[in-house]
Amino acid sequence: MNNDQKRYWQSYYRTHRDPGANTAFSQFCLDKFLSGCGSLLEIGCGNGRDAVFFAANGLDVTALDQIGEEIDYLNRTRATDKLRFIEADISEPLNVGSFDCIYMRFSLHSVSAGVQERFLSGLNGHLNEGGLYLVEARSVKDDMYSAGVQISKNENITDHYRRYIDKEELASTLKNLGHRIIYQTESRGLAKYGDEDPVVIRIASQKAQNCRA
Ligand SMILES: C[S@@+](CC[C@H](N)C(=O)[O-])C[C@H]1O[C@@H](n2cnc3c(N)ncnc32)[C@H](O)[C@@H]1O
């Protein structure tokens, strides 16, 4: 499954190499949560559109993705002393520093529930105390939920693999890591793309002092 998914993104970025406009979620996070934030790690940065935006707005940004060709391209064309791209697979242990914020947009639904559980827990050790997880992902209420080939209750394959996220389950996972949920919503209108207006969830959680890492 992961190899097919990886091939899909490899092929996608061959024709979408350059960062386009940043997403609505990145602007929302910048306005609402990131004023006191110095460093940010982006998980599944794709062609770097949000990473470039955060760095342009003064954050020190490390952005990772599994697609090495795209990461090499972004390092050649977009890296600065405040912005670096690394090739990494979040299903493996990550070798990164520590951050005030870990940002994940439309990347959680690229991995299985088991991988999500492991990497959210592992990454918690790379989040400074009081640091934030900021997540946007397709909800289980998304119209695409029942499209394509179902491979489990919340997983399907259309042109590529997706797992749809249950907001309450994710909030509960984050609370079990010692996080406080500081914002959550589930709605259409947040991530419009062409004719698509998927139901997405947004969750912001904060790592407490002395919590389990
Ligand atoms: C839907 S795209 C989102 C890209 C970007 N966050 C955006 O909003 O434009 C999902 C991204 O997650 C990356 N991804 C999927 N599985 C991954 C994994 N196991 N490790 C690292 N990146 C992964 C894909 O390569 C892809 O770039």
Question: What does the model show?
Answer:
The protein has about 210 residues and is an alpha/beta fold. It has one domain: 3-Layer(aba) Sandwich (Rossmann fold). About 30% of the residues lie in helices and about 30% in strands. The strands form 2 sheets. The chain has a 7-stranded mixed beta sheet, sandwiched between helices. A 3-stranded antiparallel beta sheet has the order 6-7-8. Helix 5 links the parallel strand 4 and strand 5. It is globular, with a radius of gyration of 16 Å. The model has no long low-confidence stretch (mean pLDDT about 95).
Summarize the SSE layout with pairings.
Layout: H1 2-15, H2 24-32, E1 39-43, H3 49-56, E2 60-65, H4 68-77, E3 83-87, E4 99-105, H5 113-124, E5 127-138, E6 149-152, E7 155-157, E8 161-163, H6 167-176, E9 179-187, E10 200-207
Parallel strand pairs: 1-2, 1-4, 2-3, 4-5
Antiparallel strand pairs: 5-10, 6-7, 7-8, 9-10
The protein binds S-adenosylmethionine.
S-adenosylmethionine (SAM) binds at residues 9, 23, 44-46, 49, 65-67, 89-91, 105-107, 110-111.
Q: In short, what is this structure?
A:
The protein has 213 residues and is an alpha/beta fold. The chain contains 6 helices and 10 strands, in the order H-H-E-H-E-H-E-E-H-E-E-E-E-H-E-E.
Quick tags:
30% helix, 10 strands, seven-stranded mixed sheet, 6 helices, 29% strand, Rossmann fold, 213 residues, alpha/beta, binds S-adenosylmethionine
